[in-house]
Amino acid sequence: MGTADVEAVWRIESARIVAALTRFTGDFGVAEDAAQEAVAEALVSWPLAPPANPAGWLMATARRRAIDAIRRQAALRDRYALLAADLAADSEADEEIDPDKIDDDVLALMFVSCHPVLSRESRVALTLRVVGGLTSEEIARAFLVPVATVQARITRGKKTIAAAGVPFELPPAAERRERLGGVLSVLYVIFTEGSTATSGDRLLRPEVAYEAIRLARTLAALQPDEPEVHGLLALCELTAARFPARTGPDGSPVLLDEQDRRRWDFSAIRRGLAALAKASTRGLGPYGLQAAIAATHASAPSVEETDWDRIVVLYEALGRIAPSPVVELNRAVAVAMASGPAQALAIVDELIASDRLPGSHLVPSVRGELLARLGRRPEARAELELAARLCANQRERSVLLRKAATLS
Question: Which pLDDT tens digit goes with each residue over 335-355?
């Protein structure tokens, strides 16, 4: 067994291992550290002596590392004695995580890593690390920040959880529903960064987006009666279905009206539509409405044949229950397709007048497109050049500059 084998087992089993260890030790930080130490030990020992039960080996080793850590803390000697006695009674067959505890443990782990006492950055880093099984290096690459920054966020997050006395347990049903929005928002942030990177030289970071989808599937399996969980999963699946057609062979962006829709992932579309049907059982929430918009795109044979009137209505509904300037901007794009650029330009100009998206490249990007369609070429070029200056993603910037050049 090599590094790839260890990483594969860890990616699959990490959430269950960390969750079980946290329940076992009562200390989230100790559990996560012990699990990482077990992985480091596996990288050394597995190539020499591959275990028959890799997941059980990781669990048993991490448990021993956790006991070592607890033993070093004098105030927890009594707990160590109990844990050591429990470990001595274990057999190889018992090294697997208790299957009756797995689901609740993983769900509790999600709620702990997304706890409202943490900053958004710490929530994202902790979720990817302890639930997703990503390394600090992988998280740093995904969000284009130094590894030390990711490590500091994870360390700070664990210390904050410990200082706040956050228990490792599922919140009561009512509180769980209140906090579910926080969990979903973290998964949404992770997926959004993967589907359109905020900066760097890649438009897509599919490995990040697919990790968010995997976590959303896990959450949907553990919370099957929560429509918005299925709504988020549907949104992610339907959006990711377009990934194969969104970039060319050299990684350059391919705009929606130029995409070869035959390259879309129709299996992902089917999964997304199935999740959307589950989300629709009690009326669509914010994620469900965004998924319905994505489904309208996914079912259209071309940009021209897309039901833009339906998309406008869905954005209007989304704006009522989850108002935001980005929703208004997207509504303007849909209005332009349904009713023409003049009406849409009024919506964008109102956003500018209220200064609701300061510093964003999205506003001048959309405004430039609308002005170009209205034949106001010099103004359109100025807006697209401004958008390019504000855009941190090199791939998007190149598209904006290319469009601006055609207006000279």
Answer: 999 999 999 999 999 999 998
